[in-house]
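Consider one such protein record:
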Amino acid sequence: MLNQKRLNELKIGDEFTAFLLVTKFEVKTTKNGKPFINLELRDKSALLPAKVWNKIEEIVDTIKEGAVVKVAGLLEEFNGSLQIRVEKIRLANETDNVSSDDFLPGSVRPLNEMIDELNSAIGSVANPFLQSLIKKILSGDNFEKFCRAPAGKSWHHSYLHGLLEHTLEIIRICNLMSSIHPEIDRDLLITGALLHDFGKTEELTYSNTFDYSDKGKLIGHIVLSAIEIEKAASQIPSFPDELKTQLLHLVLSHQGKLEFASPVEPRTLEAIVLYQADELSAKTNAYKYAIESDRNRGGKWTRFLQLANTSLYIPDSFKGEEEND
């Protein structure tokens, strides 16, 4: 574990030196024609924009996205957002003994515990066609990718094993709703919960940075998930067409609204439950980590969050992941 202050522990005006991971690197110019380097830098706790104004020519050919760098800088505020003013920056070398895995955040839940919970959820699906479908998709390399992938680039569950954690949260919510409303087809709903975001294993890249793949940008995880289900179902003899159609509807409608990239809106009982469970898991996680990110910087409110369209209140009683752990 690196012996350095976490980014989310810094306060405005703090000077610091730390190893960080470069997730964006671009050369830009001001309106006056002055060149500067625009960066995004991260550790396990936060991702922040950064600017380099001096000695641009010494840096531009040596540093790129995915590189680990040593930075001396200042945390400042610009247009209501935090950013790092970089005073010095260099590539990490072998003697520094650091790698990209030191900076990619991961779930605080133990991986083995989550895998056991996942296998239990898969085994609880009684419908033989859905059971076969799940095992066809979540096997081999697909299973490994599913357990490692983040659920997003930056908004919610945006850390290693985040997709697995997000999926398990949704399954718990769906199990609760199924126990309250016996009219729900639980097998169908749990299968939808397990597979609705499978396409994120191809939509996102997560080796040394989190980003969107070409396939992710061109197709997107919803359609990628649907394609995988269609392909797997075609390999299972006598798979009921009506069952496949309902499952595809769950996947295609799980983001709820056409303006949120869902090809269709939820039109079955199971689909509306999955959509709301997905929303609850995603927004709770995103809001929690937004509060976690800003709680050490003073004040009772977070910065304005564009995706939430609001700032969030930080209660005195809020405990971060480290304290809860």
